[in-house]
Amino acid sequence: MEENNEGNMDRAMKHYMIAVRSGRQEALADIKKLYTIGQASKDDFMKALQSYQIYLGEIKSNQRDKAAATYEGCRYY
């Protein structure tokens, strides 16, 4: 909303990064979109990608992998 309503990209990026660290794929996709149109830096996108990868590493478990292999709706990656 910061991005669309106020044009405050710094604040919007902070919110996107918080969301990415919480595992929101949509926020990562939004940062990627901003990077492709020149509204976010390569460093911003790389930090977001690294944060998302750290999140995935933290939630990884054998049980989740088995559930994801069995049921498409259980994928967390």
pLDDT < 50 runs, ≥5 residues: none
Biggest β-sheet, characterized?
A: none
| Overall mean confidence score, pLDDT | 86
Figure out the total of helices. 5
Overall shape: elongated
- Going by helix content, strand content and strand pairing, the class is mainly alpha
Strand content: under 5%
Give a short overview:
The protein has helices at 2-6, 9-21, 25-36, 42-59, 62-70. The chain is an all-alpha fold. α3 runs antiparallel to α4 (42-59).
List key phrases describing it:
77 residues; mainly alpha; elongated
Topology:
Elements: H1 2-6, H2 9-21, H3 25-36, H4 42-59, H5 62-70
Characterization of the model:
This protein is an all-alpha fold and 77 residues long. It has one domain. Helices cover 74% and strands 0% of the residues. The protein is elongated and about 40 Å long. The chain starts with a helix and ends in a 7-residue tail after the last helix.
